[in-house]
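Hello, quick one for you while I still have it in my head. Could you read through the record and tell me how the tokens relate to the sequence? No rush at all, and the record is pasted right below.
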Amino acid sequence: MSQLDRRAWLLWALAGPALAAEPALGVSRRPLRFPRDFGAHPDTGLEWWYLTGLLGPDEATPQYGYQLTFFRLRNRDPAVQAHPSALAPRQLLLAHVALSDLRAGRQHHEQRLARIGPGGVHAAEQDCDLRLRDWWLRRSEQGYEARFGGTDFALALDLRSTAAPLLQGEAGYSRKGPDPAQASHYYSRPQLQTRARLSLAGARSLALQGRSWLDHEWSDSLLAPEAQGWDWLGVNLLDGSALTAFQLRRADGSALWSGGSWRESAGATRSYASGEIVFRPGRRWRSPRSGAEYPVEWQLQTPQGRLQLRALMDAQEVDARPSTGLLYWEGAAELLDAQGRQLGRGYLEMTGYARRMRLL
């Protein structure tokens, strides 16, 4: 993180009392409109674009998993918003990237933070166009393109889909708790056909292919006070279907709220009400870095029947404490039926196992 970025983060931290004092407003429920809603919503406090996928020499042989997440945060301090300087930290853009080498059992990850403004840092409002210096994600009529990397890898992605956005919850309004204000606008782009070029330090460049998943959410209030964290999964099924499932947990591990969706390959979609998805943790992995224990195997009870979810690699914890204070598990996983037959692959995210998750 550069010295300028550190100053931006310090200014953001100093605005914490203003953030905490403002009441939670949720989001104003409205129909989603595209391509406008592919873009940024700077009037809301928190927003993220979350891109994950599995890659290999062919779709049947995944060898790498990847994550690219851009977070946009709005500073709610009126004095900062009214400041005349173009360098005032009115909005911050953060990014986390990770590459899981499933054969080597190693994860690479990097993180960045900078104020939105001059210097190659932007989040466009009219369509998806995000840049944090040489990391970027953008959409065109043909699909999405992304470029990012770390000290020992670089990944270029070309993503295509002819399917309409999957509107989560009630037409894109996704409840996240018992209070209606605990909600987000949320859509997904599952089953993105992906071609990639991966460069690893000391190795030749690899041409890869696979399937990816893009989530985009924005809100002012997501977590109930009693929520410790959440578990989320997005799985591209081999038959072209897509499964989304999540739960918010209390400190004792019990479910506070749950939800998700099932999209059939032909396009018919069913949204799950809270309680229709039940997560039961199985085998756990203990992080040697943080000491947190994460369930890396799950039993899922869904309207589609009993399913199993299993991490493809245990050590996929992301330590983003230097930039955001966040510590979470994010990694490649496979979905199996009750008899252990593979149904699909995707990504599993688990937060709040090291300490309570805080977003705003």
